[in-house]
Design brief:
Blueprint lengths: L6 H8 L4 E5 L6 H14 L4 E5 L10 H15 L10 H9 L5 E6 L7 H13 L3 E7 L5 E2 L2 E2 L2 H5 L6 E5 H4 L3 H10 L6 H11 L3 H10 L10 H15 L2 H12 L5 H10 L8 H11 L4 E3 L7 E3 L2 H14 L1 H17 L5 H10 L3 H18 L2 H7 L4 H4 L3 H10 L9 H17 L10 H16 L2 H18 L8 H17 L2 H14 L6 H18 L2 H14 L2 H7 L3 H12 L3 H9 L12 H14 L3 H12 L11 H16 L3 H8 L10 H10 L3 H12 L6 H17 L3 H18 L3 H4 L3 H11 L5 H8 L16 H13 L2 H8 L3 H15 L4 H11 L10
Helix pairs in contact: 1-2, 3-4, 3-5, 4-5, 9-10, 10-11, 11-15, 12-13, 12-14, 12-15, 13-14, 13-16, 15-16, 16-17, 17-18, 17-19, 18-21, 18-22, 19-21, 21-22, 22-23, 23-24, 23-25, 24-25, 25-26, 25-27, 26-27, 27-28, 27-30, 28-30, 30-31, 30-32, 31-32, 32-33, 32-34, 33-34, 34-35, 34-36, 35-36, 36-37, ...
Amino acid sequence: MSAVARSRLLDRLDRLDPVAVVRAVHGFGRTVLAEQWAARQRSTGRPVAWTSGPWPSDGHRGPWTAVRDALTAALRAAGSDVPDAPDPAQLAAAVDAAGSPVVLVIDDADQLDAPADLQAVADLLTASHGLRLLLVTGARYPLRPSGAWHPVLEATRRPLSVVTLTARDLAFTPDELRAAAATWGHVVDDTRLRQVVDLVQGWPTLARAVLDDTGPGDARPATSAAFAYARDVMLPDVGDTVLLRAAMLVAAAGDPTPATTRLVLDAAGRSRSADDELDVLLRLEAVGMVVRRRTDAGPSRWHVPGLLREVLVRELERRDPELSARVHRVLAVAALTTHPPDPGAAVEHAARAHDWTLLETCWVDFGTYLVATAGAAVDAAYAPLPDAVTETSTVLALARAVARRGEDERDDPRALVLRLMTELGTLALDGSWRSRTPAGRWTGAASALVAARSRGDIPRAMVVVRDTEIAAARAGVAGGTSTRAYWWFLLQGGRTALLDGDLGTALELPMRAYELADPSRAPDVRAAAAGHVALVHALDGVLSDAERWLVRHAEALDPAWEIRLRDSAGDVAEAMVATDHLDLPAADAALSRLTLAVHAPDVTWPFVMRARVRRAVLFGEPETGLAELEQIERTHHVWLAQAGLVHRIVARLRAELLLALGEYHRVGDLLVGQDPTGLWSDVPRARWHLLTGDPHAALRSAVLGGRRRRVNLADRTDLLVLESWAALESGQTSLAVRAFRAARRVAGEQGALRSFAHLPGAVRDALVLESGVPFDDHELARLATTGQVVPAAGRLVPLTPRERTVLTLLDEHGTTREVADALTVSVNTVRKQVLSIYAKLGVHDREAALRRAHELGVLGPQGPGH
C-alpha cells in the first residue's frame, strides 16, 4: 500500500494492553499498518506471531490451529520450550515464560467465528498475562460504546482494556496522502491533492486508484477504476447488511446531518429514537463511509466522500428503486423548506426521484438563483429531461434550455434571467404557457410582465397585473400565493406600475412582496422589494422613507445572492438620496455599483440615468451627462418612442443638461413640445424663464406647477425654490420669503439640499437674509462642494423659424447661393433674411453670425471644425 510509516498510529498500538482492534473495510491499509507495527515489535526483540485468513474449514487446520502453530513457531524461534500441539493453557504458560511480552496478530479476524476456535483463543488470552493480541478486522462486527467488539472478547467473560483504531483513525491526512502518492510514483500539486481529497477523503486505496488512472495532463481526476473497486470490493466487504443499508440511505442525503439522517431512516420505515441517528453516523464514520469535518467556527459537519456517495446512491437505486425515489423525494422537499433552503440539493434529489412536478417547483421557486449559481449537478438534472416531460411544462422546457447553454452565455446572470423571463413571458402572452404546479401560473404572469415591457406594451402589462391580482385573490394560499413565484410577480407588478406612472401600485405591490416573502427562502425578493420601495420614495422626494427602506434592503441582502444577482433598484435609490443630500462620496459609491446597460426588460436603467444626470449637473460634468443621454437615445429603445414615463424622464433630463450648459434656445425648442400634465416640464420651464430674463413668466410657471395635484415632493421643493427666486427678481419680497421658508421647511424634513444648489449664490444669500432662515455650517459645506450648477444668464434671439432654417443652412453650405438652391428660392430672398439675422444677432458678417449663434445656442455648441 505505502511505505509511509504513520507514527501517530504505531504509537497508539504500542500502548495496547492486552488487546487492540484495527477495524476498517478494505482499502484503508489496515494490514499494512499491522505489518509496520509487527516489524517495530520485532525490532525491540519481542516474539511476533502472525496468522491470517481465510482458514481451511476441514476440521483439521482451522483458525485455532493456525493461531497455535504461528505462536508456537514464534516462541521456539525466540528460544522458548513449547510442547507439540499445545492446548491453550500450555501455550499461555510458554508465553508467560518467554520473559517479554509476546505479540499475536490475527489478520482477517472477522472470519474467526467458529465457537470452538473462538473459545480456544479466548482461553489463551485469559490464561496469559504476557500475550498482546492485535485483531485486524473488517466491518462485520459492530462498534460498541467501549470500542470495537469481537466474539473473542465476549468469550473471555471478563472486561479487557482494548485499544481501538477505526477507519476514522486510519484515514490519511492530506500530508500523509501526498507522501504516500510519492511512494506510488505520483507527484501531486495542491490542486490535484484537493481534488483527490474531495473525492475519497483519506481512503488510500481509492486515492491510489484515482491517481493511477489519471494522466498528468488531465484536468479532472479519473474515477472509473476507483468506482469499480468501491462497488465490487469495498461494498461486499462491509458484511453488516444493516450498516450497508444505512450507508446507502445516508449517502442519498449528500452531506448528512442528524436531521437528514432521521429523514431518510424514517422514509425507509425505520423507527428510531432521537439519539439513534447520531449513533448511525458515528458507526458509518468508523468504517470510513462518512467523514467528520471539524471547524473552529462551529460544530462538526458530516460529509460522504464524493466518489463513495455516487457508488452508494447507485447501489440503492439498483437494489430498491422505489425506496430510492421515496428517499430522494423527501430530501428534495426538506431542502426546499429548510432554513435557509438549499435549491441546488433540492434539484439534485428531485431529479434522482424522477419527480418532474417537484423539479418544476425547484425552478419556479429558485430559478434566478439556479441560473446564477448553476453547477454541474443542476445542469445534469435539467439537461437530459425528455421531450414528453418538457411538453407538459414551459418552465421545465426553459430550464432544460438553460442547462444546455454554454458557460460563456452565463457571464451576466442578471441579463440571462431577464432574457429567459422574456422568452417565458412571450409564451404566456401568446397563451402557450404550460405548468405542472399551481405556483407556475405566477411565474408565467411575472414573465408576461417582463415580455410586455420588452415590447413597450405597458398597457398590456398593467392588464396582466390587474388580472393576475384578481386570480390570486381567488386562488388564495392553496393556489400558490405563499410561494416565491407569487412574491416575485408582486415585485414585477410594482416595477411595471412604476413605468406606467402609477406610484400607488408601484409602492403597494412590492411592499406586500416584502411582507409576505420568507426571509430564509426569498432573501433576494425581500431585498429587491425593499430596494424598489426605497427607489419609489427617492423618486418622489420622500427621503426619510427612502432611507428607512434602504436599511431594510441592506438587512435583507444575502451575500450568496448579492454577489451574482444584486438588484440595482436599491443602489439607484441610494444614489438619488445622496444627490439630494449633496453627498458626493456616497453618490459616487452607489453609482460605481451601477452599469448603464439598456436591456429592454430592465426597468431600472432610466432611473440609473436620472441619478447620473443629477450628479453631472450638480458637480460640474453636464457635457458628459449629455453625451451619455444622447448615446441612449441613439439606441432607439422601444420605451423612448412612446409618450410614457420613460419618455418624460428623458425629456426632463435633456432639459436639465441643456440648461446647465446654457443652451437656452435648444431648451426653448424642447419646451415647445406638448406636456399637458406638466409632469416633466414645470421645473425646467420655470428655471428657463429665470435664466433667460423673464422672472414674471418663471413665477407663473412655478406657482402653477406647485398647485398641480400630482406633483411629487421633490418637484414641489424645486418649484418653491424657483418661486422664491422669481418673486425676489420680480420685487415681490414677501412672496419670496414665504416660498423660501416653505421650501426650507419641506426640504429640511427630508434633509434635502439639492434644490438650493440651483440658486445663484447671491440670490441664495439674499433669500437667507430676507427670510431669517440660515443654512448651518454642515449645509453650507455641502453646498460648497457643488460645481457651477447655475450657468450665466442669457438672452433669446427672436429668430423666426424660417430665419433659423436659413442660419442652419448657411452653417452647412457656406454661401447664399447654395442656401437659395437648397430652399428653391431666389438669392435676393435669402440675402434679405440673412441681413435680418445679422441685425438680430448684432453682427455684420457670416463668420461672426455663426460664431454668435453657436455661443447663444441657436445652432447648438460649436464643434472643433468651426
